[in-house]
Amino acid sequence: MNIGYACLTLGVPGTEYRTLRQKDITPSKMREIIAANLDALERVTEYNHSMGIRLFRITSDLIPFGSSPENPVSWAEEYAEKFRQIGQKIHDYGIRVSMHPGQYTVLNSPNPDVVSRSIEDLIYHGKVLDALETDATSKIILHVGGTYGDREAAIRRFIDHHRGLPEAVRRRLIIENDDRSFTIQEVLRIANELGIPAVFDNLHHEINPSADPKTESEWVMEAGKTWKAADGKQKLHYSQQDPSKQRGSHSFTIAIDPFLDFVGEIVDADVMLEVKDKNWSAVKCWNCLRPDREIKHLEDEWARYKYLVLERDPQAYQAIRGLLKEKNTYPVLNFYRWIERALEKPAYLGHSMNALEHVAGYFKDLASETEKKTINKKMDKCRNGALSIDSAKRFFWDLAWQHHVDYLIHSYFFVKKEQLTPTEREG
Fold it and tell me: Which residue ranges make up each domain of the chain?
């Protein structure tokens, strides 16, 4: 079983993707951004390999305006060698990639213009996967679309438009159930008629269940029958509900216990996590399933999490330190349960200051006298409320880069606040 995540990689320097506004498009600017995004994808590929992640969804924004005539660059041709190099790494590392067009790609729309743009977008996604020289196991996942007041007509339009797609797209395109329009039962009907694979999404099914009262594992088995050998291993989408948001909103992190309950009921499949903390949850779930259960994997994780945990829950911090003292064990479940508990809590000023004190200690023998004075001033301002914790974090982050402190550079402590749980606050 492979565990994957979608698009963005948190807390890993150099993996951010860039974009630009339509009014700012020039050939030189577009080339600059395409080159930067391909470099980012290569770094993501290297990171995933190093973490044992063998499933990844490539962002649709890899090439800005990729399906639009506004893009003045023949990107597939100009960057063919870079795509080939990345694709070779994807192949050598055994990573399976996919793409998932956004909500405006609607193949069954009654509006011909929308359908035309959707086809162009699907061609773009296929072009990216072709440029990487991936085989047909690298898929493009799509929702069927809307019902438009007539479910049967909407289904027939999807089937008809699918049959008219270029073969390069058809060999990759697969469909999933959604949380509003089409259930897994309806998606399977379409998939079987077209002879294409279907993806079961557990949260969408929970919100929009089928009339047939099959269990989740039974629906997974039914979907599995649509996958042929050339399509690769069956893929699933797994997510959990954010209890503080409207139905269908993905949780910040994957709670490990219900995840393990879910995968314990299904056959071997590739599981794509749809979750806000992205690679953090993918690594968590993989560490719980991986066959090489060595405490080093948890120690490496702890190096990334420790100051983020200390900032939120000193009790969890001490508990995890205790867990990791036993070098001949692999206390993976309790390790992540404590981390989940910590991340549910807000970051209070006193706890944040404690974590910053630990971070400042790394520069005791590295910083110049001028830098040490600046560190002391920043810390005093934080204590007095004259400087925000975020500003102090940015300062120490820059200092870590200047002094090549890799331990801090890879710490989740410095991930931007807006990327973390919305309950975080200073108090």
Answer: 3-289, 295-419
- One-letter amino acid at 294 equals E
What is the Cα–Cα distance from 233 to 105, expressed in whole angstroms? 25
**Beta-carbon neighbour count of residue 89 at 10 Å?**
16
- CATH homologous superfamily, domain 3-289: Divalent-metal-dependent TIM barrel enzymes (3.20.20.150)
pLDDT of 416 reads 74
pLDDT 10s digits, 156-208: 999 999 999 999 999 999 999 999 999 999 999 999 999 999 999 999 999 99
**Chain centre to alpha carbon of residue 259:** 16
Name residues whose C-beta falls within 8 Å of residue 223's C-beta, 6 or more positions apart in sequence: 184, 188, 191, 197, 198, 199, 200, 234, 236
What pTM was computed for the model? 0.93
